[in-house]
Amino acid sequence: MGHKLKITGWIALGVVAGALTTVSLQTVARNTLAPLPLEELQQLAAVFGMVKSDYVEPVDEKKLITDAISGMVSSLDPHSQYFDKKSFKEFKEGTSGRFVGVGIEITQEDGLVKVVTPIEGSPAFRAGLKTNDLITKIDDTAVKGLSLNDAVKRMRGEPNTKVLLTIFRKDENRSFPVTITREEIKQQSVRGKIVEPGYAWIRVSQFQERTVDDFAKKVDEMYKQEPRLKGLVLDLRNDPGGLLNAAVAISATFLPENVTVVSTNGQTPESKQVLKATPSDYMGRVGSDPLKTMPAALKKIPLIVLVNEGSASASEIVAGALQDHKRATIMGSQTFGKGSVQTFRPLGPDTGLKITTSRYYTPSGKSIQAKGIVPDVWVDETVEGSPFAALRTREADLEKHLTSGQGEEKKDAAREKAREEAMKRLEEESRKPVAERKPPEFGSDKDFQLAQAINQLKGKPVLVSKTLVERKEEKKDSDD
């Protein structure tokens, strides 16, 4: 059959941007083609000829063809996509957790690029960049007015090339230039710590090639620091997805061996499968199992999983598996609702097609497509509530999204009202100083949802949400 690599993908969340997909990479192409509609293909060829001969100025033939392919594929659903050389390179960087750049996590503040943190050991870390530094220029280009993606592209490049950053350090009230040599950066997708004696927090921000190894190392570190853990919080908030085999592996860490983690179903034989909590399903036949040395206590330790509207795809698979097997209590808010699977078909050495081939289902057989995982305990983002939750994009908001395939979608009549109220609140918040608008960092001592998760583990009262309610799958217009 050939090597397969399952991938789930990206949604724009803060500094992370991408395409929110679940993908099966296959190095073999299908041998069969459906009968071709000759009349329509003749029309396509005729239009191509007319554009080439009659358009006001000469056109690039190759661009015409690739644009036609892109248009055809993108018309299907939000996640099917044609990859040209550039987008394919970016796609591979995202799934590997490796890219060539300076090594900083960034966000935007007042039109400038703000350093959230330099990645430990990276060129930016060695150059002395600090959290809260503002980047005002990249080489000779002023950052003001650039989108975050444009700024990222300018800082990335080829290995061993140099980029000049102009830094404004607020606490020292000075600007200074820093020349940094780009190199391959390995992103860290796992963080964790002992919150208090007996209780730990571990966060997976994205499922990448190194995630399972990094997860195993972090768990080992925490158990050495606190051998008698009484409870663990697995934080999947704003986790946009990543590698499916990594999601199956993280699920298997906490589940009995060989139970179902996720199943998929579509038209083709390879789209129908069941993935279980067993090394053969998350490791294949390559390498050693990094979970082999995990403490046996992980199978039974009291477990909370934190999710929110930004938890998508692979993170929803983990939450759904642990919920269905009653292995964890899911806390937070309803997840994004990305429940379709895409397959990657290579078209050449550096181009390919990502096409939706199936839906995936939780162990109990539920599709979460356009709905999401409903938490067991609803918890707001802060003690004041979740005022902007209604403004967040969900799968059901995307043009041409698939339905769940499990019953009619229902219109959420209260959502528009909630969005109007949230927009008014956002306008009021935008007038406040930046420091007052910044939400608490995940894992910090001001993380309200984490505090409620620890309370749940201890059997203490939890401040549950009084406003968050389950959203139903919304009815699509009949002409969609």
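[next item in queue]
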Amino acid sequence: MASVATGTVSGSTQVPLDTIPISPNGDSGENGTSGPKYTESEEITVFHDPENFNVKHPLMNQWTLWFTKPPTGKGDSWKDLLKEVVTFDSVEEFWGVYNNISPTSELAVKSDYHLFKKGIRPEWEDPQNKHGGKWSYMFKEKRVVPIDDLWLFVMLAAIGETLEAEGDGEVMGVVVNVRKGFYRIGIWTKTVGRSIPGMGDGDVAGGKGRNAEKSKQILLGIGQRFKEVLKLEPHEPVEFSGHSESASAGSSRAKAKFTV
């Protein structure tokens, strides 16, 4: 497990990621000590005891947290900077991870967190992303933006499968970017709202077999839900652009395909 994004526990000291209590075995970290003991018949969740819980609530999918560290200025490649942190598949494991990594507000400029379904790399070139795009919103007033809360809300919406309807199969992952003048949060999708050539008009997850109008409506629904999670005002639009258009735009900003 990578040790790239350590954080604080209850405002105290830095904790290496390899000591995160993501298994209900009572192990509290480096010294191997454990906390309070409970009877086997007593159900303890992570909300009662974050280190000695014996009940886990499974998620519908496995999720992997990734971290992009800032470049050193020595010709680092994207693959050098992108680090896989940990994979989890329960509510308890999520909180174990979240409570032991640095808050977004404390990350260095040019850092990113990516939370993607297991098996999907947070890269445009990934086979499951290459035909897709992303919804995004840029927060320019960094000093007054509750970025830690907003990023948490988006992650919870993703792992709780509330960004789309069951069977849509569009959401690949979510990402937050820390830049000098802004924070940006995005949701990556599998398609860009068009049908896939050679397929019929049946409703199949991920866009295969959907007609263009159906695909567009699903993406617009995700965008609207994204906007609600970010608690944006009606006049504050979120924008959707395709990964291929973003790649072609280079350093310039890709033209939005949809706005909500």
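[queue empty]
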